[in-house]
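Human:
Focus on the backbone:
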Amino acid sequence: MIVTEEKLYCPFNGTIEEVLTKENSHVYEWEKLFLIKTNNGSIEEISIGISGYITSLDVKNGQKVDSDTVLATIKDDLKITGCD
């Protein structure tokens, strides 16, 4: 059995505005997982192109983040799914 875990890195410098998921929850491809307020003041939605289970959440609301920050680790369920 193939097990793939993916780390989701923050693509922006800013502050976690809201964490929209919980550890151990199932997420779908392109589901919104985080809202980040960038240093220029815009709110950016963060998602990932895989579905699976959140094995760890590495940030919390109000935390400063940059491009080296791991937001979460996701265990890919290797299913092709989608999210509106």
